[in-house]
Design goal:
mainly beta
């Protein structure tokens, strides 16, 4: 029975990272295992979403990684806990993209080199945007703002630069909120600023998405460092001591063989969180092929999958999960891996988690912790 998990529930909780190296696991503390509402605009992707999943090696994203790697792992946490619609009161000009949080200050940098997504209207003249939440909560509103015609991306973003273009009003809790609206005439590089205000809490979330309108094209970025043909690993984040919600020990993954009839790439899985009743994991997909490969990998898991991101995951008749990429990360080649993630619920049982594939190719590239080199096809 297929599980359409590419558009299913979202839940994110960072706690312990188990790194698979040469068939052995090393547990590293990474972040606290909170499981609460978080979210960001994923289409067009926000700056945090872009730097975490789509183009981490872009010059502006490299600066963000260097400034605070934890901000990228917490890409969905640009929030104010007691906002209660007091957005302009709490967020000063020049700090909109970070919600005035120092942790995300790098995303306030005014620069036209931020990776921008070209926008095209649907047949009815409206644009479709997607807000991705990691836990569903009742919504007071989603508000979309677009920068005005005189906006300069090389100047700090201010409230006066924004024009309200959409207000959803009350909506039920949902993991993926589709927002459709017309946009005023604009040309060039602009920012789509999104505010998600919950109705069951004063908490609000914010995101900045760089977009191109009126047929504008993405400028060629000026690298801040010399290009390199080798894969660049992401900086190791400053460890954050976890505060487990239960005394359950970190599970120890076991190996399961790949399916030679379908799998065409190498998969390494990492346990990124475990909070007793469930866990999250991240998979890195690589290949030794120098030509692009439309990747498909399979793996065994215990429990019920409750969320997935950066891949379409289904369950086959053999009860193995199969993952394929989205349009922007559908292919990999040697030196250009990609990654995806998911969360599982143990339910009434507490079995080991997760079961990664063994390596189907003896000469596959070694797994590097938090590899920043991502496939960016389609952007």
């Amino acid at each position: 029975m297929d599980l359409a998990l590419g558009r299913c529930k979202r839940m994110w909780a960072f706690a312990l990272s188990a790194i698979l190296v040469g068939g052995l696991l090393i547990a590293l503390p990474l972040a606290s295992p909170e499981a609460k509402a978080h979210g960001s605009l994923s289409d067009p992707p926000s700056r945090t979403y872009t730097c975490r999943f789509i183009a981490p090696e872009d010059p502006m994203c490299q600066q963000a990684w260097d400034a605070d790697p934890q901000a990228l792992y917490d890409w969905m946490e640009v929030n104010i806990g007691d906002a209660a619609s007091r957005h302009q009161e709490l967020i000063p000009d020049g700090r909109l993209c970070s919600a005035n949080r120092d942790k995300y200050a790098a995303f306030d940098t005014a620069n036209s080199q931020w990776r921008a997504t070209p926008l095209t209207a649907d047949a009815d003249g409206k644009y479709t945007f997607t807000w991705e939440s990691t836990a569903p909560h009742a919504t007071r509103y989603y508000k979309l703002y677009l920068t005005n015609a005189s906006y300069d991306p090389n100047q700090p973003l201010a409230w006066d630069d924004l024009e309200l273009v959409y207000d959803s009003g009350d909506r039920p809790g949902e993991f993926e909120a589709e927002l459709r609206t017309e946009l005023p005439d604009r040309t060039g590089h602009h920012i789509l600023y999104t505010v998600w205000q919950r109705s069951d809490s004063p908490e609000a979330f914010y995101s900045c998405s760089d977009v191109l309108l009126g047929g504008a094209t993405t400028p060629t970025p000026t690298p801040s460092v010399s290009p390199s043909a080798t894969v660049t690993s992401s900086p190791t984040p400053t460890p954050i001591e976890p505060t487990p919600t239960s005394p359950t020990a970190t599970p120890h993954p076991t190996h399961t063989p790949p399916n030679p009839d379908t799998d065409n790439a190498d998969l390494k899985l990492v346990t990124t969180a475990d909070w007793g009743s469930g866990y999250c994991a991240e998979g890195k997909v690589t290949t030794t092929s120098t030509a692009p490969v439309s990747w498909e990998v399979s793996f065994d898991l215990h429990g019920e999958m409750t969320s997935a991101w950066s891949a379409d995951i289904t369950m086959g008749a053999d009860h193995r999960y199969r993952a394929t990429g989205h349009s922007w990360n559908a292919t990999v080649k040697k030196g250009s891996p990609t990654s995806f993630g998911f969360c599982m619920d143990h339910g009434s049982h507490n079995p080991p988690a997760p079961h990664p594939n063994s390596n189907p190719h003896s000469d596959a590239e070694p797994y590097a912790e938090r590899d920043r080199h991502a496939n960016t096809n389609g952007f």
